[in-house]
Amino acid sequence: MTLDGKAALVTGGSRGIGEAVAIRLAEEGADVALTYHSQAGRAADVVDRIKALGRRAWAVQADGADAQAVLAAVEGAAAEFGRLDILVNNAGVGALGPLAELSLDDVDRALAVNVRAPFLLAQAATAHMADGGRIINIGSCMAERAAFPGGSLYATSKTALTGLTKALARELGPRGITANLIHPGPVDTDMNPADGESAAFQSGFTALGRYGRPSEIAATVAHLAGDSGRYLTGASIAVDGGFAA
Ligand code: NDP
């Protein structure tokens, strides 16, 4: 196992991409802490599946818009496992809609969950990380290509992660801590179901002509988290079926 003895924190690990990432990291040998927003039952299921793999698991409720809850999640994970090696900043909100219809509350919430929380999580997690740690941020293909209208707020929030990731890579490089950003294309989750209204439209923007599966994003996270990712930092990696091609 490549991640034996490592401890990971995955935000938004109760469903979708975060769930697949949490399970995959556990399969690779890591103990996994995860956050959720409101689906305590789903989070408990993921915890049970990780424990069934013989790994330790812990879940905590944390709205990304609540800075204190986010910071408490880091402290709780580090206390639970006695270490923290891998942070996956996955939790995010969709925040799509026509420019004229986005409210100030929409803007504040999207920036708090999609930008401020990953910043605070990285800041708090690196205080616990030993040399060789990993920060993996989940962005979006819409940060690379505004293929259709309605993405102004979402793309703004996800593009901010490019700056965060590069600056973290530069600052933490001397400690052997890497920071990278994955830009998923359309991935079949509750946020963006592959049988949803706009699914055919979105698939049409990809070179492969289909939605991705959460496990296909988790595979790249596992690559970055393991020893395989040790010389890869500051990068934005499109795992998008060619959406940005
Ligand atoms: P889902 O909506 O399927 O799952 C979202 C996860 O985040 C859940 O675990 C949810 O918890 C948690 N969450 C939701 N709202 C908040 C909040 N306010 N604060 C903290 N956690 C929250 O999303 P996906 O798996 O599709 O998306 C995961 C990431 O990937 C997001 O950052 C998203 O922007 C990005 N992405 C997704 C794409 C897609 O097509 N699916 C494409 C490109 C990027 P709970 O279960 O408790 O509600």
TrEMBL record:
SMART domains: PKS_KR (SM00822). Residues 6-185 form the Ketoreductase domain. The keyword Oxidoreductase applies. GO terms for molecular function: oxidoreductase activity. InterPro entries: KR_dom, NAD(P)-bd_dom_sf, SDR_fam. Belongs to the short-chain dehydrogenases/reductases (SDR) family. PANTHER family: OXIDOREDUCTASE, SHORT-CHAIN DEHYDROGENASE/REDUCTASE FAMILY (AFU_ORTHOLOGUE AFUA_5G02870) (PTHR43639), SHORT-CHAIN DEHYDROGENASE_REDUCTASE FAMILY PROTEIN (PTHR43639:SF1). This is Oxidoreductase. It comes from Streptomyces antioxidans.
